[in-house]
Design a protein that fits this description.
The complex is a heterodimer of chains A (292) and B (234).
Chain A: H1 3-34, H2 41-59, H3 63-89, H4 96-119, E1 135-138, E2 141-144, H5 145-167, H6 169-179, H7 191-216, H8 223-238, H9 243-263, H10 271-283
Antiparallel strand pairs in A: 1-2
Helix pairs in contact in A: 1-5, 1-7, 1-8, 1-9, 2-3, 2-4, 2-7, 2-8, 3-7, 5-6, 5-7, 6-7, 8-9, 8-10, 9-10
Chain B: E1 2-11, E2 14-24, E3 29-34, H1 40-48, E4 55-60, E5 63-64, H2 70-76, E6 78-81, H3 93-100, H4 112-120, H5 122-125, H6 137-150, E7 155-159, H7 167-182, E8 186-191, H8 194-200, E9 203-208, E10 211-217, H9 218-223, H10 225-230
Parallel strand pairs in B: 3-8, 3-9, 6-7, 7-8
Antiparallel strand pairs in B: 1-2, 1-4, 4-5, 9-10
Classes of the chains: A mainly alpha (292), B alpha/beta (234).
InterPro entries (chain A): ABC_transp_permease, BCAA_transport_permease
Subcellular location (chain A): Cell membrane
Pfam families (chain A): BPD_transp_2
Chain lengths: 292, 234
């Protein structure tokens, strides 16, 4: 193992980690806002990837161009999921936790079923796009362009989210609702609107990730499952509900995955991630940046 | 301005207030006094929309507001400071106040009410970057009132503003209430400390076990023999 191979895989790990962060941040945002885990998060990613694929297949739209469209569509989808399903699930008079879990879990099963029926279980891919299959060499390190651009988009998305939360009135309303949803009516804020906005935003972020992922990953009905598992680990690592934690957690997961691949056979690729996850859960159950 | 007619509100089957009627005229300070459990908080909650009355009506400036969503009632011009204040604990004093102006966020002059709040409670302006949870009880009450004033209300409702606050600050807060009224707002206060409340109030109601026991001008109430004996300890 040369120094170059190590740097090479750490660099790819970092890029992938930033994408993991982008996939996970919507989950963290929604959980932080209303203590609801979206078990359909992976399926949100799946439909974003399909949307990108079909925009390419029917309109020859490059994933980079369709990314903002897919994010916007997912925003609407997320808000509608809140307004039609989650809003009622959180009002359950008994067993609220279970009702919440099964409402989003049921949605996940439904979405996968619908995708299998209409899109068939076939693996699809976007055969040629602006970035697909291309690499760039920086100081002797080869980086795949889709992952590189994806990582840059992730950084930009996090920066935008930070600005939104800390510098705008809507962001402040989001923070206030996260602090005490029962108190925002005192200043005239409709918490349902804020929750819908939070779901929209969370879905838009995973939509952005899905558009980038569609460049270099197969699209199929179950594609969300493995990425969602990584997203749950990322969010738990970073600290449940912490947006910055999702960013940092994503980077940790990406790097750990890269290091594991260097040491262990590829089939054991995920062992490292879950090992670190267990370690964090034992030593610091609140996660790296969690506040509680 | 505000007219509460025969309002009955119950929690989980237990009636907290029944057939309560009160009126608040523009520019008044009205005090609703009574012992713990008399239904004072429930009355304010029923007006603010935090609880839905089971029967009766609440009218504000000629419009029925009972049954309306709480955030819409705030938008109508009723600011409510609940007993436990409900600040946003991990947000700064500045952000708490700024959230108060959320309803008119697109307007250019949203800092105007802020000057009034700082004049009323100068110590808030010294603590702008502090988290709300790090303030003392009295300062938190000031912030809660300040945040309510930021919504530019016509009617301000305070639930036990003196609770958990050292005596010196209680006086400061009651003096502030007078200045709020002098600035053109109407105030409805619910208090256990009847003597202090009657001092600044124009009119008062006494609630007992969910019903209006007595009503009148502040002078009438504080001059009443039974009240002096039962509530003022004189």
């Amino acid at each position: 193992m040369t120094a170059e191979t190590i740097i090479q895989s750490l660099a790819s790990g970092l890029l992938m980690g930033l994408l993991y962060g982008l996939i996970a941040v919507g989950l963290a945002l929604i959980f932080g806002l209303m203590d609801v885990v979206n078990f359909a998060h992976g399926e949100f990613l799946m439909i974003a990837m399909y949307a990108t694929f079909f925009l390419f297949a029917f309109f020859a739209l490059d994933p980079l161009l369709s990314a903002p469209l897919v994010a916007a569509a997912l925003f609407i989808f997320g808000a509608v999921v809140y307004l039609l399903i989650v809003r009622f699930a959180v009002r359950a008079k008994a067993n609220t936790g279970m009702v919440q879990i099964f409402s989003t879990f049921g949605l996940a099963v439904l979405m996968r079923g619908v995708a299998q029926y209409f899109f068939t279980p076939d693996y699809r891919s976007i055969p040629h796009s602006w970035l697909g299959g291309k690499t760039i060499s920086i100081a002797g390190i080869y980086l795949p362009q889709p992952q590189l651009v994806g990582a840059l988009i992730a950084i930009a998305a996090f920066a935008g989210l930070y600005f939104f939360i800390h510098r705008t009135d809507f962001g402040r309303a989001l923070e206030a609702t996260r602090e005490d949803a029962g108190a925002v009516a005192l200043v005239g804020i409709d918490k349902n609107k804020v929750f819908a906005l939070g779901w929209g935003l969370g879905a838009a972020l995973v939509g952005l990730a899905g558009a980038v992922m569609a460049i270099f990953f197969y699209v199929f009905p179950d594609v969300g499952a493995s990425f969602a598992t990584i997203a749950y680990v990322t969010v738990a690592l970073g600290g449940f509900g912490s947006v910055f934690g999702a960013f940092a957690g994503g980077i940790v997961v990406g790097l750990v995955e890269a290091i594991t691949t260097l040491i262990l056979p590829p089939s054991l690729k995920t062992v490292g991630i879950y090992g670190v996850y267990l370690l964090v859960v034992f030593i610091r159950p609140r996660g790296l940046f969690g506040s509680i | 301005m505000l007219s509460v007619r025969d309002v009955t509100t119950a929690y989980q089957g237990l009636v907290a207030i029944s057939n309560v009627s009160i009126d608040v005229e523009k520019g008044e300070i009205v005090c609703v006094a009574g012992a713990n459990g008399a239904g004072k908080s429930t009355l304010l909650k029923s007006i603010a929309g935090a609880e839905r009355p089971r029967a009766g009506s609440v009218t504000f400036d000629g419009n029925r507001i009972d049954g309306m969503a709480q955030h819409l009632i705030t938008a109508k011009g009723i600011a409510y400071v609940p007993e436990n204040r409900r600040l946003f604990p991990r947000l700064s004093v500045r952000d708490n106040l700024r959230l108060g102006s959320y309803l008119y966020r697109s307007e250019a002059n949203r800092d105007e009410p802020l000057d009034f709040v700082f004049k009323l409670f100068p110590r808030l302006s010294e603590r702008l970057e502090q988290r709300a949870e790090t303030l003392s009880g009295g300062e938190q009450q000031m912030l809660a009132i300040g945040r309510a004033l930021m919504t530019r209300p016509r009617l301000l409702m305070l639930d036990e503003p003196s609770q958990g606050i050292m005596p010196k600050l209680v006086d400061e807060i009651f003096q502030a209430v007078k200045r709020i009224r002098d600035a053109g707002m109407t105030v409805l206060i619910v208090e256990q400390r009847m003597a202090e409340c009657l001092e600044i109030a124009d009119r008062a109601y006494i609630l007992q076990t969910g019903r209006v026991l007595m009503q009148g001008t502040a002078a009438e109430i504080s001059g009443n023999k039974d009240v002096r004996k039962a509530y003022l300890g004189l």
